[in-house]
Design a protein that fits this description.
The protein has 585 residues and is α+β, with helices and mostly antiparallel strands. The chain is built from 22 helices and eleven strands. The structure holds ligand UCC and flavin-adenine dinucleotide.
Length: 585
């Protein structure tokens, strides 16, 4: 016997076993929730018209677009501040894949689709379906696109002639050579949440009607954008500015002049970040930057709120998309990885783990798609008052809730690959570090919880009335199905309890409402997702798994705000205990 030949670990031999890698095939055909929702909601002729494009795109994001996104992760941008002869250049150098994704975004009509309105109110949902697939594959090109979409919406709604005539045609162009991206510069050193007190940038009026901006923008995620929308305080002829929110106005500026020189902007440095490494996020000094005022004086925050609505919806689509993509990889891997004598998909405990992630992902997907439907109605001025109120309330709720879901699902998702989930070459760690930003930028969880309260106060509670009737109507539809009845009752109970809490707190204890804002937002999110899932499961073409997912969703604590209220978390004693807990030692 040749014993030597039986020893596998010698010289060039490293053992015969190599694990098969996880694969994606088509992110549209494999997404049962996305496909079923569109089929249930869209008119048949619209769905027929867009299906070939969605199928083609679903394949692309699993193949060439995914490869480009990965290249962006591996070749992050860098800043060259000086040329060889000492001149300041501040060139943000991006990789070829990043620039190719710019061209692909234009050609695919990622921004153009909802503004072309070829399918009326359904055009937005068509774009939303593409974003849900594109975002996690796009190497974070989704970030400048989100801000570009937000700027396009501001251009449309503000009616500002310069924005409409000069920027808008570029923003909605399908021609890569003409397509512009936009930034959104709000955050300064003193504050990204508290913009009203944090903004120090001043705008000095010029004789030709323009302004020159002087300030320091602390986070700018689109340092390579063609234009931006930003906030500043107009200085009067005595050199004074108005402090607080009433002093802020919205400005449009182009980052370079006609000769390609930066518009009196210095890129101080690029940030060294946990994730989103594909994205050039920089600190910018504005030193006499020429800008055009878009809003009325002192109406800057209200004007940029239209942009925030869009970018927060894009954020939610990144969350739902990341969860879907990672889960599809995880389930494919479970059919290739063998441990303890069988494939991991044959271990019931592993399937339970993935099953829970699947339920979260389906819930998040239905929520963001519904928000997309509402936005489509608003785009076409077809949204009833009830739908407008729902869009206002659901935007922060969806952003804050799906972001947290994405972090949890991506963390569990990495673990489902075992040690390989932690290894950079697999591309898997990117999911987790990129998901972590989703609950920070575009408003943190607490700040968005305040935004939920803001919508409540501003509409004198009308958003909650709209929420109640919308949710109740969906439950009424679902309750006719015998097997969904107990779950419908659970959601209905949660709805009543949450409403009762909010109404009582709003009228009697506003301070309590503030400390309960996060739990209230979670309760509204869980209750509403429950209603959406039950409605979806009651559809005559629903699959058995739609029913399973809906029933399981409703088994969790749907109104944590009531649970915590009963535990005394929001009273003076509860608040004092929080502080004592945190500050001891
Ligand atoms: O992070 C950023 C970019 C990241 C990259 C993009 C990624 C996109 C996703 C990509 C997917 C991959 S940009 C920075 C984002 N920054 C924020 O989100 C700021 C967070 N802070 C807030 O949201 C605060 O709540 C503020 C700034 C809105 C608070 O400002 P004020 O001035 O203190 O707030 P006020 O006084 O309550 O509101 C001023 C006006 C009011 O209108 P009037 O005067 O008519 O009553 C409000 O009703 O603004 C109105 N307003 C709103 N309207 C405020 N928020 C809203 C809203 N959400 N919707 C409608
Ligand atoms: P802070 O406001 O200091 O928040 C600190 C903590 O306090 C948070 O946990 C927050 O939830 C909590 N908190 C704040 N207010 C309250 C309250 N009232 N009640 C309870 N809790 C509260 N900004 C831009 O303008 N443009 C960009 O392109 C951009 N890109 C970014 C890219 C990345 C990768 C990151 C990480 C950030 C980016 N930002 C950008 C900035 C981002 O929007 C802000 O960092 C974010 O809005 C939070 O603001 P802050 O950093 O000032 O946090």
């Amino acid at each position: 016997v040749d014993l030597q030949s039986k020893i596998p670990f010698a010289r060039a031999k490293v053992g015969p076993f190599f694990q098969d890698k996880p694969r994606l095939t088509n992110m549209y055909l494999e997404d049962v929730t996305l496909k079923a929702y569109l089929k249930r909601i869209m008119p048949e002729e619209v769905l027929q018209a867009i299906t070939p494009d969605l199928e083609r795109f679903g394949r692309r994001v699993a193949t060439d677009i995914g490869v480009l996104g990965r290249e962006c992760e591996l070749n992050p941008p860098y800043l060259t501040q000086y040329d060889a002869w000492g001149r300041r250049t501040d060139e943000v150098v991006t990789c070829q894949a990043w620039r190719t994704l710019h061209d692909i975004s234009a050609e695919e009509g990622i921004i153009a689709i909802p503004y072309e309105r070829e399918f009326g109110q359904w055009s937005r949902l068509y774009q939303v379906a593409k974003l849900h697939m594109f975002n996690p594959a796009s190497g974070l090109y989704s970030c400048p696109l989100a801000m570009t979409d937000g700027a396009t919406k501001v251009a449309e709604l503000s009616g500002d002639s310069l924005l409409l005539e000069r920027a808008y045609p570029h923003l909605v162009s399908r021609n890569p050579a003409d397509f512009w991206t936009s930034g959104q510069w709000m955050t300064e050193r003193r504050g990204g949440s508290d913009v009203a007190n944090g903004t120090e940038t001043i705008a000095v009026p010029q004789e030709d009607g323009t302004h020159r901006l002087y300030g320091y923008k602390w986070f700018s995620s689109a340092t390579d954008a063609d234009m931006t929308l930003t906030l500043a305080r107009v200085m009067d002829n005595t050199g004074e500015v108005v402090q607080g929110t009433r002093g802020l106005s919205l400005f449009y500026l182009e980052t370079r002049d006609s000769s390609g020189q930066l518009n009196n902007i210095q890129v101080q440095r690029l940030k060294n970040k946990l994730g989103t490494r594909q994205l050039p996020t920089g600190e910018l000094l504005l030193d006499g930057t020429v800008a055009h005022k878009v809003s009325d004086e002192g109406r800057g925050v209200a004007a940029i709120a239209d942009m925030l609505t869009i970018t927060r919806i894009h954020n939610s689509l990144m969350a739902s998309g990341c969860m879907r993509r990672l889960l599809n990889l995880a389930r494919d891997y479970s059919t290739r990885r063998r441990v303890f004598g069988k494939l991991i998909c044959e271990h019931p405990l592993h399937m339970q783990t993935l099953g829970r992630m699947e339920t979260e992902t389906r819930g998040a997907t239905l929520l963001v798609l519904e928000v997309g439907r509402l936005l489509g109605l608003q785009d076409c001025q077809m949204a009833s008052e009830q739908y407008q109120l729902m869009l206002r309330l659901l935007t922060p709720i969806t952003k804050l809730y799906t972001a947290k879901q994405a972090v949890a699902v991506c963390s569990e998702g990495l673990e489902s690959f075992g040690g390989q989930g932690y290894i950079e070459d697999t591309g898997l760690p990117t999911f987790l570090r990129d998901a972590q930003v989703l609950s920070i930028w575009e408003g943190t969880t607490n700040v968005l919880s305040h935004d939920v309260l803001r919508s409540l106060v501003k509409t004198k509670g009308a958003v909650l009335q709209a929420f109640y009737s919308d949710t109740a109507a969906r439950l009424k539809q679902a309750v006719v199905k015998e097997n969904l009845r107990p779950s419908c009752q659970a959601v209905e109970l949660a709805l009543h309890k949450t409403m009762a809490f909010a109404q009582k707190a709003a009228s009697q204890e506003p301070a309590k409402l503030e400390v309960a804002a996060r739990d209230l937002s979670y309760s509204l999110a869980r209750t509403y997702i429950g209603a959406l899932m039950l409605e979806h499961a009651s559809w005559d073409q629903a699959s058995p798994t739609d029913i399973t997912a809906a029933v399981r969703w409703c088994q969790q604590d749907l109104c944590p705000v009531v649970t915590s209220d009963l535990a005394g978390c929001y009273g003076n004693e509860g608040m004092a205990q929080d502080t004592a807990l945190v500050m001891e030692g």
